[in-house]
Amino acid sequence: MPEGSVLAPAQAPAPRSFLRRGGWLLLALPLWVGLYAVLQRLSELLAFGLLGLAPESHLGAAVAFLFYDTPKVLLLLTLVVFIVTFLQSFVSPARVRDALSRRRAGVGNGLAALFGILTPFCSCSAVPLFIGFLRAGVPLGVTFSFLVAAPMINEVALGMLFAMFGWRIALLYAGTGLAIAFLSGLVLGRMRLEQHLERWVQEALQAPASGTVEEERLTLPLRIDLAVQGVREIVGKVWPYILAGICVGAFIHGYVPESLMAGLLGTRAWYSVPLAVLVGVPLYSNAAGVLPIVEALLGKGAALGSTLAFMMSVIGLSLPELVILRKVMRPRLIAAFVAVVALGIVLVGYLFNAIL
Amino acid sequence: MLIEVFGPGCAKCQTLERHARHAAEQAGGDHQVVKVSDHAVMAARGILSTPALAVDGHLKFQGRVASSDEIAALLKG
Questions:
Q1: Which residues in chain B are closer than 8 Å to A97, comparing Cβ atoms?
Q2: What H or E segment, with its residue span, contains residue B59?
Q3: How many whole angstroms separate alpha carbon A295 and alpha carbon A239?
Q4: Which residues of B touch A216 (CB under 8 A)?
């Protein structure tokens, strides 16, 4: 054996079988459906049968919720993330940027908020994206509309809302999220905050471009691979948040009396919406982690507006994202950003509590 | 060839850098892998999402982690 062959020799990749090119999906889907179908009974069997807890007891209710919700949320998340990452492989940030470049305020803000839902977005890409948009002539206010919409109305949040609460709540969340992104971008654009960008950003906006950018063509098997990667990465990253969320949810479900929840987050209490936002902003979780809490809150009679406001402020405004944005924005700009978005969320919360 | 891996240092960027180094080794020949984490440079290069990879100044892809096989194929092509 020649010495060099220890390192895998360069060779043409073997043609991959149908199964490896995505055919395995045909097997995975029925398995998923089967698992999902038996979850409820399995969780009751575990909680009441195996552990012998009484269904009416606080502990029994909490434990059954835990056993049912954990696999349910994980299964739903897997499916939602798979579908969403697959679809997202068709939308590239570069195309969105070109579509938004030199748009007027108004139309631009609306488009940016819509694109924010569709575009793959990870907070570690926030800085390059932000600068890239501004360099291409996307107005600051329009960029903000995108930055608000992208994390808050992300497709995972929408998919999970749809799967757990039905299309009406998902649509409601999407619609109000869009409105907040649109309006806060419009307001921030009006405030002429360009001089509150960090100096190096202002310089980077003027610097000449270098190198070339190639538009890549993805094949179907590669898109499926990307979707699998997305599932691994997202599910691998968020499961502790989900578990934490479910534990909080299980506690609320089993122990918090309905009268307390109705008093704190009910429709009548004027302070319920600001309270929800105040609690939500410093909390950091992702859509999948916050949903079990939302589920338990709604089940205990919290008002829909207050609950949606809570969810929006948890996933839309987060400390880690603000720390990243601090690299490009001076404190005044960050403060304006947080204030405008939080105000938008509060208004939406009141609106829903009033009309629903 | 000059392989540049762009990213602020998140987990995905580190994975891509590892794959790039592996691919350079696999492909043999004279390849150099450089990690770029300066946001100003990334802006000038037209990068919108990280991680991204360029070969000899041409940005090949961004916003995803490619396998080392895929990167090795880029080095040959």
A1: 48
A2: strand B58-62
A3: 17
A4: 60-61
Of A347, A154, A285, A338, which Cα lies nearest the Cα of A294?
A285
Q: Which residues are B2's β-sheet partners? A: B32
pLDDT in tens, A223-255: 998 899 888 888 888 888 888 888 888 888 788
Residue at token pair 């608000």: A148
How distant, in Å, are the alpha carbons of A20, A23, A221, B37, B67 from that of A17? 5, 9, 11, 38, 18
- C-alpha to C-alpha distances, A60 to A70, A127, A131, A291, nearest whole angstrom: 16, 47, 52, 21
Contact B55/B2 with Cβ under 8 angstroms? Answer: yes
CA–CA gap between residue A94 and residue A101 (Å, rounded) = 10
Q: What is the domain-level CATH number for residue B7?
A: 3.40.30.10
Nearest-angstrom CA–CA distance, B16 and B69? 12
Question: Which amino acid would we find at residue A92?
Answer: S
Query: For the CA atoms of A287, A293, A296, A299, what is the dihedral angle to 10 degrees?
Result: -50
Q: Any idea of the CA torsion for A133, A112, A236, B6, to the nearest 10 degrees?
A: -10
Write down the pTM of the prediction: 0.81
Test A131 with B7 for CB contact under 8 angstroms.
Answer: no
ipTM of the complex: 0.87
* Tens of pLDDT, residues A334-343: 999 999 999 9
Containing domain of residue B66, as a range? 2-76
Q: In whole angstroms, how far apart are CA A68 and each of A39, A58, A284? A: 6, 16, 24
pLDDT tens-digit map of A13-38:
455 677 777 788 888 888 888 888 88
A97: closest chain B residue by CA: B48
Characterize the bridge pairing of strands B2-6 and B32-36. parallel
Segment (H or E) for A133: helix A126-135
Would residue B22 show up in a list of annotated catalytic residues for this protein?
Answer: no
Lowest mean pLDDT among A214-223, A253-262, B21-30: A253-262
Residue B37, classed as helix, strand or coil, is: coil
> A152 and A121 in contact (C-beta within 8 Å)?
no
Binary contact (B48, A97; C-beta < 8 A): yes
How many folded domains does chain B comprise? 1
Count CB neighbours of A11 within 10 A: 7
